[in-house]
């Protein structure tokens, strides 16, 4: 199991997040799928950012 942070997705909810790099829902979905495709076979317990970098928690 792995969790993926999609980044700041352009929605009404993200309007207050001006100044952050925003992506469309379609771009976020593509990034998440690409990231999941590149992960090793057993990333269980990982939390990664949409670009594949590990997010420490």
Automatic annotation (TrEMBL):
Residues 1-20 are annotated as: Disordered. Keywords: Plasmid. Gene3D superfamilies: NAD(P)-binding Rossmann-like Domain. This is Short-chain dehydrogenase/reductase SDR. It comes from Neorhizobium galegae bv. orientalis str. HAMBI 540. The lineage of its organism: Bacteria, Pseudomonadati, Pseudomonadota, Alphaproteobacteria, Hyphomicrobiales.
